[in-house]
């Protein structure tokens, strides 16, 4: 029998994945898979478990938010495992899963994508030759937002909480001098923040990189260089619709397979970056794209959703509603 290793974070999002677990197991078993769940309980346990687990799994599943997906991906890559990865989006921020056409809260649909479709090799990022990421590496004055938003607020408002927290911090904004080196140029720019994107969005901004592809071997660099702090709110509004890409006065935009990021202000050189919403390396750091480096399941045809109203789904709804 084929085997699935299912890692899930019981504290992600609204903490309701426990109600979906039986449904997910049912979907996999109906398709001929044996499911081995693993409940993450403390930092480092996924990495430890992956290092010790059998290597003959057919699918590895990460249920949680972007951070959980990042941890699972790093654990697999550091153990030289290329087992196809499936995502059940159940966290507050599920940006990469959203880009894959997976709907937050539709655990059954995500599982059916894994049992009814084939994985595709997608690009991933590598920072300083040691840390992998799948969606975004960011730095500047907003990169601690995901770390500072209250958990209850995140659960209540979802990604909107990140946007509101960012707006709250605008009065404290000031530019930071960066040196950005790509494969063919060196730029020195004063920026409020920057993002290096694989998919189209992060946080509340789903159209940061409207033309993004996760299999073209390049990432998009987006830096905010608005002339004054008064322009920031209007830039944010443009970022919500994807219109910011045309605003060369306020946005620095580049596409490449290599970036080196340096801070030219000694007071900010110890500033940490974030990778997939988790704490990342301090500057300076290098980032390279590993083209089509990992097999991942997704609703790549952008169908409405693979999920259907099945007896399992109906049972799950009854359990959730307590009726």
Structural class of the secondary structure composition?
A: alpha+beta
Strand content: 25-35%
Number of domains: 2
> What's the CATH first level of the largest domain?
Mainly Beta
The protein's oligomeric status is single chain
Helix segment tally:
10
Silhouette: elongated
Lay out the secondary structure.
Blueprint: E1 2-8, H1 17-30, E2 33-39, H2 45-52, E3 59-64, H3 66-78, E4 85-89, H4 95-99, H5 107-116, E5 120-127, E6 131-133, E7 136-140, H6 145-148, H7 151-157, H8 160-169, E8 176-181, E9 186-191, E10 193-197, E11 219-224, H9 232-241, E12 251-256, E13 258-263, E14 272-275, E15 278-282, E16 285-296, H10 311-321
Helix pairs in contact: 1-5, 1-10, 2-3
Describe the structure.
This protein has two domains: 2-119 and 297-321, Probable inorganic polyphosphate/atp-NAD kinase, domain 1 (Rossmann fold, 3-Layer(aba) Sandwich), CATH 3.40.50; 131-291, Tumour Suppressor Smad4. The protein has helices at 17-30, 45-52, 66-78, 95-99, 107-116, 145-148, 151-157, 160-169, 232-241, 311-321; strands at residues 2-8, 33-39, 59-64, 85-89, 120-127, 131-133, 136-140, 176-181, 186-191, 193-197, 219-224, 251-256, 258-263, 272-275, 278-282, 285-296. It is built from ten helices and 16 strands. Helices cover 28% and strands 30% of the residues. It is α+β, with helices and mostly antiparallel strands. The strands form three sheets. Strands 6-5-16-13-8-9 form a six-stranded antiparallel sheet, with helices on one face. It is elongated. A hairpin with a 2-residue loop joins strand 14 and strand 15 (278-282). The longest helix is centred in the N-terminal third of the chain and has 14 residues, at 17-30. Helix 1 (17-30) runs parallel beside helix 5 (107-116), helix 1 (17-30) runs antiparallel to helix 10 (311-321) and helix 2 (45-52) runs parallel beside helix 3.
